[in-house]
Structures are given as C-alpha cells and as structure tokens.
Specification:
About 80% of the residues lie in helices and about 0% in strands. It is mainly alpha-helical.
C-alpha cells in the first residue's frame, strides 16, 4: 500500500509504512530499511521524472535539507526512542487529519521561495530521523506549483536526491551495515515492486479526491495506532 501511494503521488511511502513497521522493529532498523526500499523506488520514478522536474526549485531546498539531515541523524543516534516514536505518531496522525479535512476546491496560494529555508530544514530532520520528510517537501512544492505533473515529477526527483543523501548518512553511521536490515529489506522488495508498479499504472486513472481520502485515512490510522502503543 505504501508504494502504491508512492507510485501515484511520487512520495508518501515512508510516512505510511514507518509508523506500522516500528510496531514490530526498532526505529534504528526501520529507517535504514526504508532507505534501501526508497532508493529502488525513487530511482525508478526519479530518473523517469528528470526532464519534467523543476531543478531550480530543488537547488533552493537541497542545502537547507542537508542541514536538517545532520540534525536528524544526530537525534536518531543519541535521543531515546520513546519521544521520537510519539513525535512520529503525532506527525503521521496530524498529516492524516490535514489531508482528510482539506477541501477539494481549496485554492493554492503561491508562497515565496524563501520558505524553502524552514521547509528544507524541517524536511531534512524528518527525512533523516523517520524517513518521512516527503509530506513536508510536498507541502512546500504544492504551494509553489499549480501543475500536478510538475509537482509529481519534482517530488519524485527530490526523493531520489534525498534518499541518496540518507544512504550516505546511513553508511557513515553504520546503521545500514547489518544483516537484519539487509535481510528485511530484501524480504520487502517484492512488496515494494508490486505496489510501485500498480501505482505507476493507475496514477492517471484515480481522482485526486479519492486518493486524498485513502492517503489521509492510512496516515491517521497508522499514526493513531503508534501513539496508542506508546502512550498506553
């Protein structure tokens, strides 16, 4: 389901799958797994989207995202897991509610490019910490573009760049270099391929409203389950 969403929208795999996977595996295992899976998915979509992506927009986001990633990977290595998981659950649930209550015809207000600074730093933190920076980048880019195809292409190419940065951080810290991470990632690759293939084939057939309902519902459910598990 997570990579079906990714195939349709160009992002969203990690924020759907990570809150569920951390119910079964440690966060320090789940985040490197998502790096491997996202790398495969982003390479497939990102290289196909290269020509349609807005590279100038990404050149603004990239340096501030790198700063955020440094902060995020430091928290992942040093902070206790309980507050991090509560933050992740709240972030996922909040985004689910935000998506579900968004009006179908709500006008999009174009914002200044200088908003790339806070959005880039926040996206970088959540990307390195939870592998869930996609909704933050998507929120920014959605307020910069009015063309859905350009938005999807730019998001897919952005995810490709950011997942390579995540891979570098995971290799430097050694989080990705263990058999549990590699074995679980290999086990989940067929699920990723199936979801991505179906999503890529159907993204032009689904209405934005129905996709919004499905995406928001999954986010709200995953975030709520994680919050309940951590707080009860």
């Amino acid at each position: 389901m997570a990579y079906f969403i990714f195939g349709v929208t160009g992002f969203g795999s990690s924020i759907i799958s990570v809150p569920v996977l951390v119910l079964f595996f440690p966060l320090q295992v789940v985040v490197p797994i998502m790096v491997i899976l996202d790398l495969c998915a982003a390479f497939y979509l990102g290289t196909k989207s290269f020509d349609a992506a807005d590279k100038r927009e990404l050149s603004w986001l990239l340096p501030f995202s790198f700063i955020g990633m440094v902060i995020g990977i430091t928290l992942l290595l040093k902070a206790p897991p309980e507050p991090l998981l509560i933050t992740l659950g709240a972030f996922a649930a909040f985004n689910g509610i935000r998506v579900l209550i968004k009006k179908k015809s709500a006008p999009i207000q174009t914002i200044s490019q200088y908003w790339s600074i806070p959005f880039g730093v926040a996206g970088g933190i959540f990307t390195a910490l939870f592998a869930t920076g996609g909704p933050i980048y998507a929120s920014y880019l959605a307020m910069r573009f009015n063309e859905p195809n350009t938005l999807r292409a730019t998001m897919a190419f952005a995810i490709l760049i950011f997942v390579f940065l995540r891979l570098v951080f995971m290799l430097v810290t050694g989080l990705i270099l263990n058999w549990e991470v590699l074995g679980l990632a290999l086990f989940l690759v067929p699920c990723m391929v199936i979801g991505l293939w179906i999503g890529s084939k159907t993204h032009r057939l689904l209405s934005i409203h129905h996709m919004q309902l499905a995406y928001g519902s999954i986010l709200l459910f995953a975030g709520s389950v994680l919050l309940i598990k951590q707080l009860v």
